[in-house]
Design brief:
four-stranded antiparallel sheet, globular, single chain
Length: 300
């Protein structure tokens, strides 16, 4: 019997931050994870079991507007019921272990950014592990579509690489990179982080009080990222190499802020402070990851 036949009904959750069954999803910390009551399984879309062949590969992490799917297995023979019960429990406890599959296109990325996304200063490639998938997707799209990288030798390399990527591939890459584990990079700037704290108050509006970033505002993570790269990007914003292209509204906003910092020392101090910040564990666990399709960070 095809296990998909036990699908009885689906109930849409208004938003990931609203309560449903009183249980908490292990990935996004929302309260609509599996509720196991007698012979009925309510499973959030982040662990949607469709068939015996897809138990391990058709599992989706929770996103806004996720589905709570109800399986009515009251008529399933006892052996099969016990099997499904065990699978449901294993899935709920193993959500954190699941991760997007490695796209073959990442072979090109790792040549400069490293196998773990740690970056390589000698090649001018920053750390990318820890960046939000949506931000990664948007920047790859900007390179591909000519909104970023013009007049910049390193940017030209990214333009050439991203020109071979379609939206689906960008989404897979963004999801994979965004799910990478933390990797530490050493600070390189001679600066005073404490002196940069007051200046960072302006940055926090888009990049977060802890440097965790803000997906809604398009502000990337700064905490723990490559400080030398952020200095280079400040210079690019000031000179117009970045943020001046038509359609790059968020880049234009950042350009205005970068131009308001007149002192190179001020720039270095605020960057040194930003990269020294520590992201709370709760904030770090709220990444958007789609383990099945790898499209969380699509460029749309």
């Amino acid at each position: 019997m095809h296990w998909g036949a036990i699908l009885a009904s689906r109930r849409r959750v208004p938003h990931c931050n609203q309560a449903a069954d009183g249980h908490r999803c292990t990935r996004c910390q929302t309260r609509h994870m599996a509720s196991i009551k007698l012979a009925i399984w309510r499973v959030c879309s982040c662990k949607r079991f469709l068939s015996t062949r897809s138990l391990s590969r058709k599992r989706r992490f929770c996103r806004a507007g996720g589905l709570v799917t109800t399986f009515n297995a009251g008529w399933v023979p006892g052996l099969a019921t016990g099997f499904l019960f065990a699978v449901a429990l294993a899935g709920a406890s193993g959500a954190e272990a699941a991760a997007p599959r490695r796209p073959v296109e990442f072979d090109i990325c790792q040549g400069c950014h490293g196998v773990s996304g740690q970056g390589n200063a000698e090649l001018g490639a920053p750390r990318i592990a820890g960046l939000d998938p949506q931000y990664i997707g948007q920047q790859l799209s900007n390179f591909r579509d000519g909104r970023r990288g013009g007049g910049d030798e390193l940017g030209a390399q990214m333009i050439a690489i991203s020109s071979t990527l379609d939206d689906t591939t960008i989404g897979r890459l963004a999801a994979y990179i965004g799910a990478m584990p933390e990797t530490a990079v050493s600070p390189t700037l001679k600066a005073d982080p404490r002196a940069g704290q007051s200046t960072y108050a302006t940055c926090a509006a888009c990049h977060g009080a802890h440097g965790e970033g803000n997906v809604a505002l398009g502000g990337p993570r700064l905490a723990g990222m490559s400080d030398w790269y952020l200095v280079r990007q400040f210079s690019a914003f000031v000179s117009g190499k970045r943020g001046a292209a038509a359609g790059d509204d968020r880049g234009a906003a950042m350009r205005g802020i970068a131009q308001s910092l007149k002192s190179e020392r001020t720039v270095r101090d605020v960057i040194a402070y930003a990269v020294s910040l520590q992201i709370p564990a709760v904030a770090a666990s709220e990444k958007c990851v789609d383990g099945a399709e790898g499209t969380c960070g699509s460029s749309h």
